[in-house]
Amino acid sequence: MLVVEKNALSEEIESYVNKYGNDRSALLMILHEIQKKHRHISEFAQQEVARLLNIHPVEVFSVISFFAFLNSNPKGRNLVRICQTISCDMKGKSGLVKAIERELGIEMGGTTKDNKFTVEYANCLGLCDMGPAMAINDQVFLQLTPEKAVELLGKVK
Amino acid sequence: METIKKKRTGPVIFSEYKRGDAITKALSMTREDILFELKDSKLKGRGGAGFPTSTKWMLTAAAKSNEKFLVCNADEGEPGTFKDRVLLMEYPELVFDGMVVGGYTIGAQKGIVYLRGEYEYLLKPLEDYLEVMRKDNLLGKNILGKKDFSFEIEVFLGSGAYVCGEETALIESLEGHRGEPRNRPPYPINTGYLGRPTSVNNVETLAAVSHIVMKGGSWFAKFGTDKSSGSKLFSVSGDCEKPGVYELPWGIKISELLEIVGAKNTKAVQIGGASGHCVPKSQFNRTMAYEDVATGGSVMVFNESRDMLHVLKNFMEFFVDESCGQCTPCRMGNVKLLEGVEMIEKGEYTFAHINKLKDLGRTMQLASKCGLGQSSPNPFISILDNFKDEIFNAANGGRNGK
After folding, report:
1. What confidence score (pLDDT) does residue B398 get?
2. Where are the alpha helices (DSSP H) in B63-152?
3. pLDDT at residue A68, as a whole number
4. Which of B191, B221, B251 marks a domain boundary?
5. Is B341 an 8 Å CB contact of chain A?
6. Which domain range does residue B237 map to?
7. Cβ <8 Å between B311 and A140
8. Is B88 helix (H, G, I), strand (E, B) or coil?
9. Per-residue pLDDT tens for A42-56?
10. Which residues 22-81 in chain B show a CB within 8 A of chain A?
11. Where are the domains of chain A?
């Protein structure tokens, strides 16, 4: 990581701390912002958060490792989540999965070579009445067919 | 996500309500009067556990502290549940007015909505809505001119952990820790968020409070049965013509509900989500109520074509994924139960082993620290018992002979 990048990241994290406060209870919201922007929370970012909140870096890591939506390893620029819980499963989740795996040439959990997509399973997205459901970043799409799902991925920049 | 507001009708929650009404009325009442109305209504927590709301608020109100919190639990992670999404999207006035009433009743200064990470798209509309409430003085300092009553609401975003729906895990996560449940007691009503008295209530409970304040506790208690008053939002999904959220009075028969949602050739209904019970066809005359089949509202319908072992495997995979790993019965037990399901799938099991796993399940129900591990063996036990003919005893020796 370049020094300039480090400085920029530090500044960014400081702005989140100013927004949410430097109390430990602000930790999850701060991590959420970093995750949203960078798609992962790097070791350096973890150390910066720990320094500003005055806690040990391993505490920050332990929280990241707990939550499914936070990760310390880099992922693709766009995160695709397919609901795997039973209602969506019955409505044809595996069809979506196969089509997307074929189209992107990766398996579930993988990232495309151009780093554009990471595809994962998610537990119940709470859209059981309109399954199968898929989320691309923070947007959700409902009642998908394999064809429609692939078409949606094509529209992502 | 489309945000078309469907016209919904129902006896209680989906009945007529105007924004701010409950706050205006509640502020003209004393705290005790509100608690008495709630007691008359016999309202029980709608998250699934069914703790009486009046008792929870009375205890929180009685706790001595200069700082108290009201948390709205919108971390609905139970598979097959989506009523809170509908309430927050289409009826935020009911939920937020209920929160302000709650804050006034228990003497809290701050309300927190714990919104699950999967519902991130609701964050912006909810925050916009809160901003409008602030402008109309339904939030903030001296609400509607009532001296000494100030209340703020903020939305906190979760990060994809089912266990955070458990109230102490939710509080841990709010405080910036791993979302692992705490030992209880002490209960949140006196030692909650930041060690202060905290009342954690389900979204639907708070929505019901707004109606109870307006129309009275005895009006609410007219609906439903003796022990389960009022109505319930059921999230219906699976093999039926009209999946969605339905408001129905407690005490409705499973067969009646199936008729309403247009379910045909139904083999089984999973009630209460993955951690609930699987009810076979022979028991469809049972009623949904705290005294019979209790539920947080999830109803998943399976027709004749579904493989119940596949359903069970899906549930056990879910629990293995979502166990927080803090206590051994849940961390290890769920993995063992899933292994058992895979053995049955491959036909490499003995009945002696399956019976031992059922015993293990009963141990988990007793020994796990929180509701996750206490209820995760439910589908394992209920599906293997209720569908043993399909799974073990079919022609050629069931799956064993395949």
Report:
1. 52
2. 83-90, 92-106, 123-135
3. 94
4. B221
5. no
6. 231-303
7. no
8. helix
9. 999 999 999 999 999
10. 76-81
11. 3-66, 78-155
CATH top class, domain A3-66: mainly alpha
Of the residues B195, B221, B247, the one at which a domain ends: B221
B87 reaches A (C-beta below 8 A): no
Q: Please provide the DSSP assignment of B232-286 as one string.
A: EEEEEEESSSS-EEEEEETTEEHHHHHHHHT--SEEEEEESSTTSEEEEGGGTT-
What average pLDDT does range B207-234 have in this prediction?
Answer: 95
pLDDT digit string, tens, across residues B30-62: 999 999 999 999 999 998 888 999 999 999 999
Answer yes or no: is pLDDT of B399 > 60: no
Mean pLDDT of A11-30: 96
Number of domains in chain B: 3
A87:B175 CB<8 A: no
Q: Is pLDDT of B402 > 70?
A: no
Q: In this predicted model, what pLDDT tens digit does every residue of B252-274 receive, in sequence order?
A: 999 999 999 999 999 999 999 99
Going by C-alpha positions, the residue among B329, B348, B327, B330 that lies closest to residue B339 is B348
Do B85 and B186 reside in the same domain of the chain? yes
Superfamily of domain A78-155: Glutaredoxin (3.40.30.10)
Judge: B79–A86 Cβ closer than 8 Å, yes or no.
yes
B79 vs A contacts (CB less than 8 Å) = 85-87, 123-124, 128
Q: What is the CATH number of the domain that holds B40?
A: 3.40.50.11540
B65 located within any domain: yes
User: Best mutation site among B1, B301, B311 for testing chain A: the one with the most A CBs within 10 Å?
Assistant: B1
Beta bridge partners of B111: B70, B153
> Using a CB-CB distance cutoff of 8 angstroms, which residues of chain A are in contact with residue B81?
124, 126, 128
**Whole-prediction pTM value?**
0.94
Same domain for B213 and B359? no
**CB atoms A140 and B1 under 8 Å:** yes
- Which chain B positions have a beta carbon within 8 Å of A60's beta carbon? none
Q: Do B321 and A66 touch (CB under 8 A)?
A: no
- Same domain, yes or no, for B358 and B238? no
Which 112-141 residues of chain A touch chain B by CB within 8 A?
122-131, 135, 138-140
B321 to A123: CB separation less than 8 angstroms, yes or no: yes
Are A129 and B79 inside 8 Å of each other by CB?
A: no
| CA B380 to each of CA B149, B308, B354: distance values in angstroms, whole numbers, following the listed order | 49, 11, 10
Judge contact between B118 and A126, C-beta under 8 A: yes
A134 forms beta bridges with: A82, A141
Express as a percent the part of chain B with pLDDT over 90: 91
CB contact under 8 A, A129 and B243: yes
β-strand partners of B238: B301
Cβ-based neighbour number of residue B294 at 10 Å: 18
Question: Tokens 């937020």 appear where?
Answer: B96
Q: Model confidence over A74-131: pLDDT tens digits?
A: 999 999 999 999 999 999 999 999 999 999 999 999 999 999 999 999 999 999 999 8
